[in-house]
Specification:
heterodimer, B: alpha+beta, 4-stranded antiparallel β-sheet, 3-stranded antiparallel β-sheet, 2 helices, 7 strands, elongated
Chain lengths: 171, 149
């Protein structure tokens, strides 16, 4: 994959924004209302959805991997890397497939991504803990993903609406 | 490769995605959340994927138990879900269970999730790599086995 300077700069900016959003959502801990391991808003998914449509799958994966590795490095918690990697890659895989379906809007793609993210994180918890116990929470996590996926879908729709007339969306 | 820009208003196909996710959640819940027994339960503690302790739920009434896992300390104590009777001679209406009463882990999800009272239920603390699970039990005498006719 060969990137122009403009594309590389855009990828770096989006990776930084995704990292900032990951930290920002710590200010709104959804787990206070729903005390289940892994419950979160998934604000960084807005950047992933945007990158997938505006830049392409390769660039979106590049941003996603940068966010996961840098996030684990800055948090000083490499154990968390497997959770963020499996969750993020599952979400990306689901959204890449769903975005090919012309009938789906950004809401359907975002909700599918949020659900896949929770499945990926539950799989990471099962692998890390060596027990199927974390799957006990998966039904609640999936139900929550309908809400969080809808919210990130709404935020992404607003973003695309706002940037519709810019050079960014015209390539 | 760029994709065509997305539709920005919800479509009927989005409803299908919502239905699929909801159906998966319901199917998993039906499979995993079958009403377990609340009598004669055994608590199993796993730390780092290995069983660290196993005790009868009644034993916890004597004193809470403390565990150290991945550098964090968790205290497991007996808990009552439901109505407790203030009178000694009147049986409480609630179910005896257990909870993580205190933990110094950063997320505190294990404490906030509250009490578990039935077999098959578990409390997971990811930072401590700690799992508390209820197992076994005898059939609930008040439960209905089958309804005929």
């Amino acid at each position: 994959m060969k990137l122009t300077t403009k594309q590389l700069t855009l990828c770096a900016l989006l990776a930084a924004m995704a990292l900032a959003l990951s930290y920002l959502e710590n200010l709104f801990p959804l787990s206070l209302a729903i005390p289940i391991p892994g419950v979160k808003l998934g604000l960084a998914n807005i950047v992933t959805v945007f990158a997938l449509y505006a830049l392409g799958l390769g660039e979106a994966c590049f941003i996603l991997l940068a966010r996961c590795f840098l996030g684990a490095l800055f948090a000083g918690n490499l154990n968390a890397l497997i959770f963020s990697l499996l969750g993020a890659l599952s979400a990306m895989g689901a959204m890449a497939l769903l975005s090919r379906r012309r009938g789906l809007s950004i809401y359907g793609v975002s909700i599918g991504g949020a659900a896949a993210h929770n499945c990926g994180q539950a799989a990471a918890a099962v692998l890390t803990l060596g027990s199927a116990a974390p799957l006990y929470y998966l039904p609640v996590l999936l139900a929550v993903s309908l809400l969080t996926g809808g919210l990130t879908g709404l935020a992404s729709a607003c973003l695309f609406q706002g940037l519709r007339h810019t050079d960014l969306m015209k390539g | 490769m760029k994709r065509p820009l997305p539709k920005l208003r919800p479509t009927a196909w989005d409803g299908l995605v919502v239905l699929c996710v909801a159906a998966l959640a319901v199917a998993l819940a039906a499979f995993q959340w079958q009403g377990g027994s609340s009598q004669g339960l055994t608590a199993v503690v796993s730390i780092d994927g290995a069983e660290a302790d196993r005790f009868a739920l009644q034993d916890l009434l004597k004193s809470p138990r403390t565990y150290t896992a991945s550098g964090y300390t968790l205290e497991v104590a007996a808990a009552l879900r439901g109505d407790a009777s203030p009178l000694d001679h009147v049986k409480s209406n609630g179910e005896l269970g257990l909870q993580v009463a205190h933990s110094d882990c950063p997320t505190q999800d294990c404490v906030r999730i509250g009490a578990i009272t039935r077999s098959g239920q578990s409390i997971v603390c990811l930072p401590a790599r700690f799992i508390l699970r209820l197992e076994g039990g005898t059939p609930d005498p008040d439960s209905v086995d089958a309804v005929l006719g």
